[in-house]
Specification:
The chain is an alpha/beta fold. It has an eight-stranded mixed beta sheet, sandwiched between helices. The radius of gyration is 18 Å and the shape is globular. β6, α9 and β7 form a beta-alpha-beta unit. 36% of the residues lie in helices and 14% in strands. It has a single domain, classed as P-loop containing nucleotide triphosphate hydrolases (Rossmann fold, 3-Layer(aba) Sandwich). The protein has 14 helices and eight strands.
Length: 320
């Protein structure tokens, strides 16, 4: 099994032309399916033929263990990348999935924010590290911690886009305004290319009216930035991490897997990745609970990152 950074797989023309899009997946609210989305999306896009790197920036390391990996004390990890300026090419390891590498997280990362406080250009550490490997991948995903601290700021500064998972439950938008304002501030002062790539609705339970109300409200706020695919709440999705496998490997034909494969096609199209995107399977749409995939039209680059009223709590009367 080749690593996606195998020199034999990259031609000179590829290196000259290719430049990976960096996508951070973030929501400071925990339990919204952030890491599940990062792991599943990375695996599904790699399965389409893209060269993918996943950087686990969450001290909990769930994206790392989601591939059955771990980083011991002396192993190269994101801590070394941020604190010791370890090159990512030395920290990346094969995930076990063809074309997908992982920079693992470790417990040391929990103290990195404190250690970086006095560091020069501390918010640029990840950006500088990622820049050196952009030509080796088609897309680089960064799994952020559920907070808006220095680790997440590093991810936002390094990223071209942010994908925000939102759980289909009451107060789904609570706290989202703060995240979007942080994205706007980073975009204004540290990373002018940063844009909201999309919002993905997770943990959808079609048995409840509330879930559909949340879907409708989120789509009203974010318009075309909300992905058509909706990720269902399923037992198999919750089981996959305990087996150290993405859902697309653990149970490829499950509803959760089909939903993430469908989301991967949407993301790949929006990012214009150099992969063959299969035609829409109506069964995938039915199983995922999503809308038909629209013809994607790029958003206006001059449009504000924060849609009107984004982040406002859902009106309580609408859920009675």
């Amino acid at each position: 099994m080749r690593s996606s950074t195998d020199p034999a797989s990259v031609t000179t023309d590829d290196v000259d032309a290719a430049r990976a899009t960096v996508v951070c997946i973030a929501n400071q609210k925990g339990g919204v399916g952030k890491t599940t989305t990062t792991v599943s999306l990375a695996a599904a896009i790699a399965a389409l033929g893209a060269r993918v790197l996943l950087v686990d920036l969450d001290p909990q390391g769930n994206a790392t263990t989601g591939f059955g990996l771990r980083a011991d004390e002396d192993d190269p990890s994101t801590y070394g990348v941020l604190v010791d300026s370890l090159p990512i090419v030395e920290a990346a390891v094969p995930s076990g999935i063809d074309g997908l590498d992982v920079v693992r997280s470790s417990l040391d990362l929990a103290g990195a924010e404190v250690e970086l406080v006095p560091a020069f250009s501390r918010e640029l550490r990840l950006q500088k590290a990622v820049e050196a490997v952009r030509s080796s991948y088609d897309v680089i995903f960064v799994d952020c911690p559920p907070s808006l601290g220095l680790l997440t700021i590093n991810a936002l500064v390094a990223a071209d886009q942010i994908i925000v998972p939102i759980q289909c439950e009451y107060y789904a938008l609570e706290g989202l305004g703060q995240l979007m304002r942080t994205v706007q501030l980073v975009g204004d002062s540290l990373n002018r290319k940063l844009e909201l790539g999309g919002v993905v609705l997770t943990m959808y339970d079609g048995r409840t009216n509330l879930a559909q109300q949340v879907v409708d409200e989120v789509r009203a706020y974010f318009g075309k930035r909300a992905y058509a695919t909706v990720i269902p709440r399923t037992v198999r999705l919750s089981e996959a991490p305990s087996f150290g496998q993405p859902i697309t490997v653990f149970d490829p034909q499950s509803r959760g897997s089909r939903a993430y494969q469908r989301l991967a096609r949407e993301v790949a199209e929006r990012l214009a990745l150099p992969v063959d995107i299969p035609a829409e399977n109506p069964l995938d749409r039915l199983l995922s609970g999503g809308d038909p995939l629209p013809e994607y039209e790029p958003t206006d680059p001059t449009a504000p990152v924060v849609p009107p009223d984004a982040g406002l709590p859902v009106d309580e009367e609408e859920h009675t």
